[in-house]
Amino acid sequence: WDSHGGFTYNTAACRYEITSFYKGMWLKGVWGSGCYEVYSGSDCDNSALLVFGAQSNQDTYAYTGDSYKLIKNGTSLLLYYGNITDNTTRIATKENVFNGVATSTYKIKVLWNAETGSIKIYVAQVGEEYPTVPIVAINDTHYTSGYTGWFVGNTVLQPGTKCWVEYINVIAASSDATNGIAACIPPIGGGARYGVEESVYNTFTTE
Fold first, then answer.
1. pTM for this prediction
2. Which residues, given as ranges, of the chain have pLDDT below 50?
């Protein structure tokens, strides 16, 4: 993590929670083509989901620069590009994605081919499988790499409510990779090692 100030870790629920505007959890480094995944929810109609392709380094967690931004708005999924707090342009809308239950946690997966501009988005409830066909499949070439994380803007939270994130996982091309392979950011509560091959060996005895 680069920064996640303002968040409280709920040990019982195993998640980070936030009740303030303009706060985010940011991963270190610049990321390009790859798979971006988050489990997120809120106790209001809206919820922050995912920011990727952010175009400037976030000196603080209160980032307000240009990026792609995914949000839950009622039962709809919205995808924007542009300044994260204003002057955004909506490039995709998918209605009837979420069930309208405010306390539900959803998992969202984005497959981003930054070279071609392909953005494919999959959504499912936690415990269910992703659909085989993306609910959003578009092409947009405004950004080819950037910072990524989970962000709460001013239109997401309502007074007395909170948003939460249970899981963030990124497997994508990293600007600091020296061997030309993708790097892996471990999910919350998980673990991963960069550039290390994991092996499991079983010993069998024949009599």
1. 0.80
2. 189-205
